[in-house]
């Protein structure tokens, strides 16, 4: 990790995952504003863990890429643990490039809803530009159920990733991280999902890039540990953190109905997210592994 004065430069997702060993993983938390960004990086620093800040396409649509990129990068600069900032589920080449220009250290291009050859072509195009910026790229193959930004996929329409096709996808695109579909879904689960760990192990054994597990919110500790043991090294956490944020605000206002100071309300919410972040990092085994 590069330092200039007191400012620690961002690392890439590839940098972080390159140090992960089988059996543990690094959390990637979706953020939306100053409060959750601070909760994530300060929680990571508290337990001495590397961490990834994810910014979704919908978060960018809400906050604007200039605002959210500065919040995320400033948060990263305020701590001494490795932090990456990555676009999550970007659905256009233009958005991916815009995030690179605004200082993101990683981008995820999600062409999983497209025909295979089109997904390959567009992902490869993102990779070519990312090399110029020194940015890592995550690609997705297979379709997860649930809701992610404007894409809503019924679980019955989700498509699990074919291991042999994953090999071709990685080789032809040049991606740094692969997000396969193994039975998880975005959002909260209505029933316990059945993850295909055999498929995950097979993909892990065939490709030479780290594996990202999307849709981890609501999974049991046992399932998460099994996913890590099967080859996943990046675990995306979005819904759990959002729910903690909103629910803690609701809880605080119910207990303090006359409170009108935003800093007290949001400060309480940040403190609850701070604890959640630490718990998740310890659960995934990355605590104490910063460098």
Account of the protein in words:
An eight-stranded parallel beta sheet has the order 10-7-6-5-4-3-12-11. Strands 1-2 form a two-stranded antiparallel sheet. A two-stranded antiparallel ribbon has the order 8-9. By secondary structure, the protein is α/β, with parallel strands linked by helices. It is built from eleven helices and twelve strands. Helix 2 (34-46) crosses helix 11. It has one domain (3-284): Aldolase class I (TIM Barrel, Alpha-Beta Barrel), CATH 3.20.20. It has helices at residues 13-17, 34-46, 57-63, 65-77, 93-101, 116-133, 163-173, 197-206, 221-229, 239-255, 262-284; strands at residues 3-4, 7-8, 26-30, 51-56, 83-90, 106-109, 136-141, 146-148, 151-153, 177-180, 211-213, 232-237.
Briefly say what this structure is.
The protein has 291 residues and is α/β, with parallel strands linked by helices. It has 11 helices and 12 strands.
CATH class: Alpha Beta
Order of helices and strands: EEHEHEHHEHEHEEEHEHEHEHH
* Multimerization status: single chain
> Count of DSSP helices?
11
Distance between the termini: 8 Å
Radius of gyration: 18 Å
Give the helix/strand class.
alpha/beta
CATH topology: TIM Barrel
Mean pLDDT: 91
Number of β-strand runs? 12
Helical residue percent band: 40-55%
């Amino acid at each position: 990790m590069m330092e200039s004065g007191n400012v620690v430069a961002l690392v890439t997702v590839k940098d972080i995952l390159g140090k992960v060993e089988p059996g543990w993983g690094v959390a990637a938390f979706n953020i939306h504003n100053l409060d959750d960004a601070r909760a994530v990086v300060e929680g990571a620093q508290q337990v001495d863990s590397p961490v990834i800040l994810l910014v979704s396409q919908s978060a960018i649509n809400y906050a604007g890429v200039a605002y959210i990129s500065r919040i995320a990068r400033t948060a990263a600069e305020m701590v001494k643990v490795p932090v990456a900032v990555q676009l999550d589920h970007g659905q256009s080449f233009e958005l991916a490039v815009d995030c690179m220009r605004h200082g993101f250290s990683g981008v995820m291009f999600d062409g999983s809803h497209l025909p295979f050859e089109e997904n390959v072509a567009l992902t490869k195009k993102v990779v070519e530009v990312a090399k110029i910026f020194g940015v890592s790229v995550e690609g997705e193959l297979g379709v997860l159920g649930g809701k992610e930004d404007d894409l809503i996929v019924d679980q019955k329409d989700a498509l699990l990733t074919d291991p042999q096709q994953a090999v071709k996808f990685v080789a032809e695109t040049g991606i740094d991280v692969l997000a396969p579909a193994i039975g998880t879904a975005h959002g909260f689960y209505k029933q316990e999902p059945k993850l295909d760990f055999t498929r995950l192990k097979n993909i892990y054994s065939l490709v030479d890039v780290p594996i990202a597990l999307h849709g981890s919110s609501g999974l049991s500790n046992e399932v998460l540990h099994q996913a890590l043991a099967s080859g996943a090294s990046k675990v995306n956490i979005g819904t759990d953190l959002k729910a903690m944020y909103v629910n803690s605000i609701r809880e605080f206002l119910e207990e303090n109905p006359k409170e009108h100071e935003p800093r007290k309300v949001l400060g309480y919410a940040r403190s609850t997210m701070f604890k959640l972040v630490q718990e998740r990092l310890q659960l995934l085994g990355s605590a104490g592994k910063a460098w």
